[in-house]
């Protein structure tokens, strides 16, 4: 009987570790997504400003 309790405790511990690792991976993915989105917005804004500046230069 004691080995069953140890096995159950070990199985619960493994599940907790897997859940913790999964949460960390999701958090990292969301962080990378935020950084990528920010970079896209900044590059888009800079491109728009450059295009507007070129269009308003008198020929």
Can you tell me about this structure?
The protein is mainly alpha-helical. The chain has one domain (1-58). Helices cover 92% and strands 0% of the residues. The protein has one helix and no strands.
Fraction of helical residues? over 70%
Low-confidence stretches: none
> How would the global form be characterised?
rod-shaped
Outline the biggest β-sheet: none
Our count of domains comes out at: 1
Residue-averaged pLDDT: 92
User: Based on helices, strands and strand pairing, what is the structural class?
Assistant: mainly alpha
Number of separate helices: 1
Q: How does the SSE layout of this entry go?
A:
Layout: H1 2-55
Summarize the structure.
The chain crosses the membrane at residues 37-57. With 59 residues, this protein is an all-alpha fold.
Annotation keywords:
59 residues, mainly alpha, membrane
